[in-house]
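Tip: read the tokens left to right.
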């Protein structure tokens, strides 16, 4: 054990095989059961219970279930970028809190679920199973029946076409076909919906539900954080992780439903940058100092070591 601590203090990394062996120790039933159950799954389940009860609670149970499922889809899109479940939980809590007004006041839980599924499908394109983006036409087709925000979901996914995958044969082709299919499905369903006898009220963006003052302050803070992260990591981020946050940051103050969408997009950005590309707790501070120094604030270089 002392050898391991000395190795860690000297800068060496502790691997999963470096175990602490205590002579005569035998694991008890609770420890054995915890290892078999994989307690991180229990921890994430508790996160979704908190989101359902404390954040989306108070609304009808079907609405709460749909909104919590949206958070689950967001988690599936984040987990490959961020192995730290604690920080991933913080992102989920933040996104759910910003989406709460849209769920409770605008009855937007189902559309939020569909946008979460859209985010998940697009992020899976970047990961091990790009074929799962093929569900996009179904998602957008269902969404187009409820409101016109499905067009933003289409734009969100279309940005991933600007990031072709050359390491997986046919992945980009599947994405392009899915985006085209999603656009066709959405347009057909929207035409059927709007050409009926009565056009549904609030289908288009004109039926604005403005955020309250406290929500605007929080949204403005997150927008500033997004701008800083994009500026610092712009050379290391892929195109959709730069363009989508900027687009939705510009739209977020207009409507609480756009705020809910922006919260998910910002969570993806933070997970793909700060919590994935950072190598130490001081990494972001050093990057900020380097950014400010390049912008002309050379005095900051004396605060954080940049090299």
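Filled-in amino acids:
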């Amino acid at each position: 054990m002392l050898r391991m601590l000395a190795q860690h203090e000297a800068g060496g990394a502790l691997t999963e095989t470096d175990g602490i062996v205590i002579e005569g120790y035998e694991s008890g039933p609770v420890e054995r059961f915890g290892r078999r159950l994989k307690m991180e799954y229990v921890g994430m389940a508790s996160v979704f219970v908190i989101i359902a009860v404390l954040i989306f609670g108070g609304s009808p149970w079907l609405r709460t279930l749909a909104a919590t499922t949206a958070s689950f889809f967001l988690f599936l899109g984040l987990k490959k970028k961020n192995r730290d479940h604690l920080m991933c939980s913080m992102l989920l809590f933040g996104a759910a809190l910003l989406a709460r007004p849209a769920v409770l006041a605008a009855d937007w839980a189902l559309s939020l679920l569909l946008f979460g599924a859209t985010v998940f499908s697009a992020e899976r394109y970047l990961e091990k199973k790009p074929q799962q983006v093929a569900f996009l036409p179904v998602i957008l087709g269902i969404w187009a029946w409820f409101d016109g925000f499905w067009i933003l979901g289409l734009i969100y996914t279309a940005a991933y076409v600007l990031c072709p995958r050359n390491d997986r044969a046919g992945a980009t082709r599947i994405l392009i076909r899915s985006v085209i299919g999603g656009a066709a499905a959405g347009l057909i369903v929207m035409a059927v919906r709007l050409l009926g006898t009565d056009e549904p009220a609030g289908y288009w963006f004109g039926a604005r539900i403005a955020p309250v003052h406290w929500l605007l302050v929080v949204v403005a803070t997150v927008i500033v954080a997004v701008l800083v992260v994009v500026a610092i990591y712009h050379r290391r981020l892929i195109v959709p992780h730069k363009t989508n946050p900027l687009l939705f940051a510009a739209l977020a103050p207009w409507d609480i439903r756009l705020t809910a969408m922006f919260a998910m997009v910002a969570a993806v950005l933070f997970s793909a940058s700060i919590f994935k590309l950072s190598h130490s707790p001081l990494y972001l501070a050093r990057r900020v100092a380097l950014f400010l120094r390049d912008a002309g604030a050379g005095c900051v270089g004396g605060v954080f070591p940049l090299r």
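Confidence is low (pLDDT under 50) at residues 1-20, 298-307. The radius of gyration is 22 Å.
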